Amino acid sequence: MNKNIFTFRVHSLLVVYWLIVLNVVLYILVSPLSFLFQIDSSVIYDKIQLSQQFATLIEKPWTLISYAFFHANFWHLFFNMLLLYFGGILFLNLFSAKRFLFVYFIGIIIGGMAFVMAYQVFPRLNNMISYLVGASTGIMAILIFISTYTPSYRIYLFGVFAIPLWVLGIGLVLLDLVSIPISNSGGRIAHLGGALYGFLSAYFLKNNILVQRKKLVKRSFVQKRKTNTLSEEEKRKQEQVNIILDKISKSGYESLTNEEKTFLFKVSKSVGKKTDNTTI
């Protein structure tokens, strides 16, 4: 991954637009196709929706992904696409389209597996027949990923209320948890599966980046100390870096000020040019 991970950059939203268009087109096509081939729309959905039965999943393995491209009704589609667009903007401000698609589709797969497993494990669901459609699992993975990676970033509701992303993430998870006994139990559990993947993926990525950066910066100063070539300016930078790294180890990266983040990025970038390449 590019070393500018801590800087703000905007990627094209083209990948989000394509996903939205694809979902809308497939939703629209169900009705005319069922009319032209004189079949009920349920027959089409039977081919693409995810069943809670393992046997059906083995017969139709593609449904572990195809279910996420079809929606039960217009409002189901509308709100999912709205959240996909919102999550895409937040995600692509920091990461590439490639990572966005990876998190999105793995979230869909993990969420689908959580749905199937729930009907095998929980007695309350054992005798129920249920099917899963909708992009919510992938969207949850995206939203929880970005809420975990940049929890202090604030969004503004109606341009007035500032809410940090960690509040949004916790709110979405709690909403699904309390809704399990009320309605759409399997779908709620599928959401939580996608959310769990988004959280773990962001958590390990974030910690790996910080570890790599700390190693990179410390390695440079160790090498310079061995050759006794540290200038007064470099000694001052070293002391400042040590203070920042100690702060990260105690309170996390998000505790840094914007000035400290910028300084750490500049130092690690200059170090990367003088030492061996490190992929982050």
From TrEMBL:
Report the GO molecular function annotations: serine-type endopeptidase activity
An example GO BP is: proteolysis
**Which Pfam families has this protein been placed in?**
DUF6576, Rhomboid
Q: SUPFAM superfamilies annotated for this entry?
A: Rhomboid-like (SSF144091)
What's in the GO CC field?
membrane
* UniProt keywords, alphabetically: Hydrolase, Membrane, Protease, Transmembrane, Transmembrane helix
- The principal localisation class reads membrane
Q: Which domain of life is it from?
A: Bacteria
Q: Which residues form the DUF6576 domain?
A: 232-269
Q: Where in the cell is it found?
A: Membrane
Which residue stretches, if any, does this entry annotate as coiled coil? none
Membrane-crossing ranges are 12-30, 74-95, 102-122, 128-148, 155-175, 187-205
According to the entry, every stretch annotated as the Peptidase S54 rhomboid domain falls at: 60-205
Report membrane topology.
Multi-pass membrane protein
Q: Which PANTHER family match?
A: PRESENILIN-ASSOCIATED RHOMBOID-LIKE PROTEIN, MITOCHONDRIAL, RHOMBOID PROTEASE
In the record, the note on similarity to other proteins reads:
Belongs to the peptidase S54 family.
Q: What is the protein name for this chain?
A: Rhomboid family intramembrane serine protease
